[in-house]
């Protein structure tokens, strides 16, 4: 982190520094890494923050969207239950108020009332009148319950206490799950009696079925003790204990997250009934509810990953281009510096060569004349015993003088080129002259140097000294590449608007990797012996002179360097 | 014109060189006069006009190019062959501009020198006829 902070504080530190400092490849690698890191950090941090915020926002929104309908559904269903129970209770209460004890105790009348109740309201199973002692005095329904005493049953106590009572689901004497609705009525003379109806829990199942839940969702009623009041797909049958603890009590529909006994992550929506000991519960697995969310999450993740990839690729490309530009600029600057240095060096060498040549030329001229005179005198003498031998010696001295003359003239020629820039020149002569500098080495190493100059070669307008430098470089390289006894062929041919010169050797050749870098500054294969500047300077000169240079090489077969030069100098030298 | 009648003046501060050259020319039938510096060269020209002066460019005292200039001014018919020990073509080109007939580099080939003398004398003769 400290490194990143440091980087952000001084992002371009590496770009500064001494102007003349050589830029090593490691430094470029480091710089490249830093720029990429900076660009990636600058783009990915906001992107990641946005992605994370988006993720949580979406997740919350989706959760709300899933929970809200569930809460509404539970509320609606709870209302249906309450309405159902309130209607039944009101009906029983109305009958208890509308009829006298005697009327209700009449078997026929009660049967008629019960048939009307069953017709108007679904769910009634039976109807019974119970006196203040708990004895069922009249009963209409499918069971034989007349005369039964309920005095010690809990519901009887409750109804005596509260006047109205809705029971939990229980089996009782009937041996099937049912709910009791009981109403106590008091006559004017102070007698009390109870009208009690039994409700079928099938109605409960129907209300739950009307919720139209998905197959993997579940809804059921439980009582305050956690006993199932309706059957559930996953959490127990009627009157079994529900398989998870009851949630905290609230009459408001509430949604909580929990792990159910089956190990599923679920939403549990529930509400307690204020007037009955019931809790309505609906359970929905999170996985199915969040299917849409998972799709959205996948999309988000994909967009994020794609974004990161694009940022990375873009950062790398941009940085690579930037570094390449920097490198090129640096290389050009370096090359220019080296060229200046090189030409200064050549210029000093030129002056030195001129001085030496001049100093040597005068005594050489004397030797030449003296020996010439000796020869003249000998020629005029008649034969004498040692004449032939003496003449041979004199001729030998004259040949030596001629050789020295060749050397000093080449040295002077080289020096002279330092002064001149653009001139009209004969390329064949220039090539011959330059090749002459290396004639000794070639001879010593038995390298066969062939100069194949087209006699129709046009004269060109160019820089003599620079071209001489170019050919010196090329010949030197060719000589370095060939083994002793090898071949070097220099061919010069006219072209449509210039000349083409190729220098071919049958030396060691170059690998493709070497070929790629051949014109780069400081690239050398001469392991510590070369400066790596020769060919890059050559390249620079040829380009400046408006020409082209190319190389072909096969490892173990040889190398051909080809130069084309324009006849005239156009804007290239302007 | 017979070589014996050629009027040649050799000018160089290198005594050994110029006397030997004179001697070799004499062996070939040419009798040159010799001067070892610019002043004596000018004096020799004033005394008797040569047809050709073989003049070293680099000499102590009056330099070769100055001698050339002054001779060409006083005796325009005289042809001058410049000798340069120096490689720079500038001297040669400058000399040609000042009216030298040609220039040669040391060490000399005596046959080439005589050919050039002959051309210079021919040229001077033609120029005189035209003039």
Structural description of this entry:
The complex is a heterodimer of chains A (574) and B (131). Chain A has 574 residues and is of the alpha+beta class. Chain A folds into 2 domains: 23-289, Beta-Lactamase (2-Layer Sandwich); 422-574, Heat Shock Protein 90, CATH 3.30.565. Chain A has helices spanning 2-9, 25-98, 101-105, 107-120, 154-162, 202-209, 286-289, 291-380, 387-419, 427-437, 439-444, 464-481, 512-517, 534-544; strands spanning 124-131, 136-140, 164-166, 178-186, 192-200, 218-223, 254-259, 265-272, 278-285, 422-425, 448-453, 460-463, 487-495, 498-505, 548-554, 558-566. In chain A, the strands form 4 sheets. Chain A has a 5-stranded antiparallel β-sheet with strand order 2-1-5-4-3, with helices on both faces. Chain A has a 5-stranded mixed β-sheet with strand order 11-13-14-16-15. Chain A has a 4-stranded antiparallel β-sheet with strand order 6-9-8-7. The longest helix of chain A has 90 residues, at 291-380. Chain A is rod-shaped. Residues 14-22, 528-533 and 570-574 of chain A have low confidence and may be disordered. Chain B is an alpha/beta fold. Chain B has a single domain (3-130), classed as Response regulator (Rossmann fold). Chain B is built from 5 helices and 5 strands. Chain B has helices at 15-27, 38-47, 64-74, 89-97, 110-130; strands spanning 8-11, 33-35, 52-56, 79-84, 102-105. Chain B has a 5-stranded parallel β-sheet, sandwiched between helices. The longest helix of chain B is centred in the C-terminal third of the chain and has 21 residues, at 110-130. Chain B is globular, with a radius of gyration of 13 Å. The model of chain B has no long low-confidence stretch (mean pLDDT 87).
């Amino acid at each position: 982190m400290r490194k990143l902070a440091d980087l952000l504080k001084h992002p371009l530190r590496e770009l500064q520094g001494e102007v003349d400092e050589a830029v090593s490849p490691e430094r470029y690698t480091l710089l490249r890494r830093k720029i990429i890191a900076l660009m990636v950090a600058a783009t990915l941090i906001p992107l990641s923050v946005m992605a994370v915020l988006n993720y949580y926002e979406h997740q919350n929104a989706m959760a709300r969207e899933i929970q809200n309908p569930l809460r509404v559904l539970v509320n609606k269903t709870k209302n249906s239950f309450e309405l159902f129970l309130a209607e039944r209770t009101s009906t029983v209460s109305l009958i208890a108020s509308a009829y006298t004890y005697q009327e209700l105790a009449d078997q026929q009348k009660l049967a008629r009332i019960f048939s009307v109740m069953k017709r108007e309201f679904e769910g009634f199973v039976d109807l019974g009148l119970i006196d203040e002692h708990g004895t069922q005095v009249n009963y209409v329904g499918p069971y034989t319950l007349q005369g039964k005493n309920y005095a010690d049953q809990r519901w009887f106590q409750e109804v005596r206490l509260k006047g109205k009572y809705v029971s939990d689901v229980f089996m009782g004497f009937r041996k099937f799950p049912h709910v009791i609705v009981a109403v106590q009525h008091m006559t004017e003379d102070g007698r009390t009696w109870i009208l009690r109806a039994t409700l079928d829990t099938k109605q409960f199942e129907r209300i739950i079925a009307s919720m139209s839940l998905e197959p993997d969702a579940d809804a059921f009623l439980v009582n305050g003790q956690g006993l199932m009041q309706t059957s559930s797909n996953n959490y127990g049958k009627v009157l079994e204990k529900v398989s998870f603890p009851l949630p905290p009590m609230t009459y408001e529909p509430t949604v909580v997250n929990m792990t159910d006994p089956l190990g599923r992550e679920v939403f549990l929506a529930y509400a307690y009934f204020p007037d009955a000991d019931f809790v309505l519960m609906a359970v929905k697995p999170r996985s199915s509810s969040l299917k849409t969310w998972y799709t959205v999450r996948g999309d988000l993740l994909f967009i994020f990953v794609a974004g990161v990839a694009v940022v990375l690729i873009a950062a790398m490309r941009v940085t690579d281009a930037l570094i390449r530009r920097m490198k090129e600029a640096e290389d050009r600057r370096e090359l220019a510096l080296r060229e200046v240095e090189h030409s200064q060096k050549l210029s000093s060498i030129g002056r030195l060569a001129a001085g030496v040549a001049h100093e040597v030329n005068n005594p050489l001229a004397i030797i030449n004349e003296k020996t010439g005179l000796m020869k003249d005198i000998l020629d005029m003498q008649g034969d004498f015993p040692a004449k032939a031998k003496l003449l041979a010696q004199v001729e030998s001295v004259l040949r030596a003088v001629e050789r020295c003359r060749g050397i000093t003239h080449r040295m002077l020629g080289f020096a002279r080129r330092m002064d001149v820039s653009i001139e009209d020149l004969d390329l064949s002569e220039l090539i011959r002259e330059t090749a002459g500098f290396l004639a000794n080495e070639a001879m010593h190493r038995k390298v066969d140097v062939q100069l194949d100059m087209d006699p129709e070669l046009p004269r060109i307008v160019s820089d003599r000294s620079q071209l001489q430098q170019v050919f010196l470089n090329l010949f030197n390289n060719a000589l370095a590449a060939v083994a002793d006894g090898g071949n070097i062929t220099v061919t010069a041919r006219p072209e449509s608007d210039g000349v083409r010169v190729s220098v071919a050797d049958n030396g060691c050749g170059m690998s493709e990797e070497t070929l790629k870098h051949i014109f780069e500054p400081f690239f050398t294969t001469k392991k510590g012996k070369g400066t790596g500047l020769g060919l890059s300077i050559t390249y620079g000169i040829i380009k400046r002179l408006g020409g082209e240079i190319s190389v072909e090489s096969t490892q173990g077969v040889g190398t051909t360097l080809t130069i084309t030069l324009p006849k005239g100098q156009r804007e290239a030298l302007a | 014109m017979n070589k014996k009648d050629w009027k040649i003046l050799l000018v160089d501060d290198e005594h050994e060189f110029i006397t030997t050259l004179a001697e070799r020319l004499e062996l070939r039938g040419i009798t040159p006069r010799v001067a070892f510096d610019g002043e004596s060269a000018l004096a020799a020209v004033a005394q008797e006009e040569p047809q050709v002066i073989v003049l070293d460019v680099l000499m102590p005292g009056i330099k070769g190019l100055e001698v050339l200039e002054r001779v060409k001014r006083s005796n325009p018919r005289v042809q001058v062959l410049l000798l340069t020990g120096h490689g720079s073509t500038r001297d040669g080109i400058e000399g040609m501009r000042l009216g030298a007939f040609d220039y040669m580099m040391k060490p000399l080939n005596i046959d080439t020198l005589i050919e050039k003398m002959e051309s210079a004398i021919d040229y001077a003769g033609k120029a005189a006829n035209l003039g």
